Amino acid sequence: MPLSTDEVIDTAAELLRRHGLADLSMRRLASELGVRPGALYWHVENKQTLLVRVADRVLADVPTTTSGAPARDIRRLLTAIRTAVLPVPDGGEVVALGYALDPTSVQVFVHLRRLIGDLGVAGRDRAAATDLIVHHVLGSIAAQQDRQLAGLPTRGASAAFDRGVALVLDRLGRPTETTETAGATESTETTDRRQEEAT
Amino acid sequence: MPLSTDEVIDTAAELLRRHGLADLSMRRLASELGVRPGALYWHVENKQTLLVRVADRVLADVPTTTSGAPARDIRRLLTAIRTAVLPVPDGGEVVALGYALDPTSVQVFVHLRRLIGDLGVAGRDRAAATDLIVHHVLGSIAAQQDRQLAGLPTRGASAAFDRGVALVLDRLGRPTETTETAGATESTETTDRRQEEAT
DNA sequence: ACCTGAACACCGTTCAAGT
DNA sequence: ACCTGAACACCGTTCAAGT
């Protein structure tokens, strides 16, 4: 029976879960599957696209239910994401890569965006708030995991995370009167244009 | 004349700036400095601590001035950070590692924390707000850089970033009546304890 | 004090050739 | 369609030995 692509992704996710990114090499993955390294390149384009699919798998079991109370649903969802990703070494980094390269590929983030809409956040602010919250979840997970791998303490990490979430959600719950921001934007905009042309 | 540790860090930062993480190898760095790979290990403990020091260097030239208007200073500072890190390929990831492993080593983040205090954010919320904002800056930079490296479009990235900043700062400017959050915290706390014991 | 030589145990990716 | 063999051009880290 030939190797299936799903088998490749599953085994890669399993390898990440057990040993982290350092041991998730194409060669190690191949030997785990009983094939030669080159065989993997028939199933995936390269290691990066493999990682994007692994990120998807890591969050696949997080339920996306709705209760009618958006703020509470968001808090529940974020806690579930943290609980799912934290035990996977380098999970924060891998999921962040997935979100960067294909924000809609991970179902759970699409759902988060919806819940933020339900909260009454409209238009451009909805995308901005989603990014803000996703960066905060994944950033705080990655930081904690980096510290763990380095043998440093991580006390209070989850409490600090929850406070950060509260700071954002308290704001989003109420109607906004946002009108400023213009001044600071200028030079950043210039940088972006330079970089975007290079693409 | 023997090699100095500063020379090693400077050359590493230069290599990152020009070619990104993929070309910042200990071997490439050594040959750039005209020495054998092993020589580097007399100057730095390993590659990770090298990267933490490189992160420091990338942000070393961002000025930390105060004007008396904290909200404006924060916006200016964040734009300056973005402008400094964005042109350095993989800069977002490297600086995030530095912030995770040693949050006080980068002067600019210590200054940010101070400005947030000036804004009237007290106690635990000050650390939480700093983390939230730093994760947002570095997360949005890393996402944009990942997309650039993959050849994907990054239109509107800086506008989205600015909106995220505005969402947070609008809230922090005003006094808070935060009291909830408890419910969602529980299970996360459990996860943390498990992980922290494993360390 | 500072570095070389040389090794150890690895990487990701490509591609002709096999079945 | 799916995989092997074999190569290409690399990695980080260690450590005896040299100067």
From TrEMBL, chains A, B:
GO terms for biological process: negative regulation of DNA-templated transcription; response to antibiotic. Residues 176-188 have a biased composition (Low complexity). Gene3D superfamilies: Homeodomain-like, Tetracycline Repressor, domain 2. GO terms for molecular function: DNA-binding transcription factor activity; transcription cis-regulatory region binding. Residues 172-199 are annotated as: Disordered. Pfam families: TetR_N. Residues 190-199 have a biased composition (Basic and acidic residues). Residues 25-44 bind DNA. Keywords: DNA-binding, Transcription, Transcription regulation. This is TetR family transcriptional regulator. It comes from Flexivirga aerilata.
